[in-house]
Specification:
The protein has helices at about 10-30, 50-55, 65-70, 75-90, 105-110, 125-135, 150-155, 175-190, 205-215, 250-265; strands at about 35-40, 45-50, 100-105, 120-125, 145, 165-170, 195-200, 220-230, 240-245, 265-275. With about 280 residues, it is α/β, with parallel strands linked by helices. It has one domain (about 5-275): Rossmann fold (3-Layer(aba) Sandwich).
């Protein structure tokens, strides 16, 4: 396990994934019914962008930093809400010059939870899980586990709440990660067919991505992708998030947010909808 998310915190890929996550949480908590959230690959929870790893790559400069510098007027609501969540996390550390602390997915989930909702965050890296435990020390609303996220998809689904969101954000270190992802997803859907699943993936090998998205045929899916027009050599240039069983109105907000994000991040957007009926089982 060599992957450390600190090198990539707040980059364009995080921006896309986290805009999606914040909006899904907002919609899924709008109903007066308890929600279960599973973050299968959680990372450390929050990142100091002036720290060694983030400062070395400076990936956040072409991601979150660009958005933070833009006027909020006229911004799509989903993006504005995401930026508000990022700013709220940064403010916890006191006011400084510009954005310094960027929330990882567990922090964004935590900010969206209501009392009574349940949240399990899995992280396997021994140092990162310690950092994640420190991040949420004393917070009983967050159940941090040193656990294999793939196994958690089997072990923790279906949730007793019968309403759930799983964020699946693996590091894609292994050559067969797409196969493992497709397998794990099939198993999870067999156990919890009505759950909402948000799956982040890198676009490096078009064939592997096409095979993965083809494996989602027959499911209610919204796929959002961004391809940077000029990515630095050797850096990730494109990524996507596939959302299975998205809540009602998610497509509408994302159809507004994605082209705006693409323009702000100098990228090309693609949105593919395979939502066969208007209502969602999770709504
Ligand atoms: C892309 S990062 C997660 C970023 C985080 N979801 C966010 O958005 O802030 C992937 C994380 O998965 C962890 N990881 C790798 N394999 C894992 C596994 N099988 N189960 C749980 N975590 C794993 C890595 O250590 C890494 O921290």
């Amino acid at each position: 396990m060599n992957y450390r998310h600190g090198y990539h915190a707040g980059n364009f890929a995080d921006v896309l994934k986290h805009v999606v996550l914040v909006e899904l949480l907002r919609l899924l908590t709008a109903k007066d019914k308890k929600l279960f959230v599973l973050d299968t690959h959680a990372g450390v929870g929050g990142y100091d962008l002036t720290d060694g790893r983030a400062a070395r790559t400076r990936e956040a400069e072409a991601g979150i930093a660009r958005l933070m510098a833009l006027p909020r007027a006229g911004m799509p609501v989903a993006v504005a809400r995401y930026l508000a969540a990022v700013a709220a996390y940064d403010r916890k550390f006191g006011r400084g010059e510009g954005l310094r602390h960027y929330p990882g997915s567990p922090r964004l989930v935590r900010a969206g939870l209501r009392p009574g909702d349940r949240f399990v965050a899995c992280e396997l890296h021994p140092q990162d899980v310690l950092a994640l435990k420190r991040e949420f020390a004393g917070d009983r609303a967050v159940d941090v586990r040193q656990a294999d996220g793939w196994h958690a998809l089997k072990a923790l689904l279906p949730p007793v709440e019968r309403r759930g969101l799983a964020l699946i954000d693996p590091p894609f270190e292994a050559a067969d990660e797409f196969d493992r992802l497709a397998r794990a997803l099939r198993q999870a859907l067999r156990r919890f067919a009505t759950g909402c699943y948000a799956i982040w993936y890198p676009i490096k090998d078009d064939e592997a991505v096409e095979a993965f998205t083809a494996s989602l045929a027959g499911l209610k899916t919204l796929v959002l992708e961004l391809r940077l027009k000029a990515a630095p050599a050797g850096k990730l240039a494109a990524c996507g998030v596939a959302v299975i069983n998205p809540p009602w109105t998610f497509q509408e907000t994302m159809a507004e947010a994605l082209p705006w994000l693409a323009a702000a991040l100098d990228a090309t957007p693609a949105l593919t909808s395979r939502l066969s009926s208007a209502s969602s089982p999770t709504a």
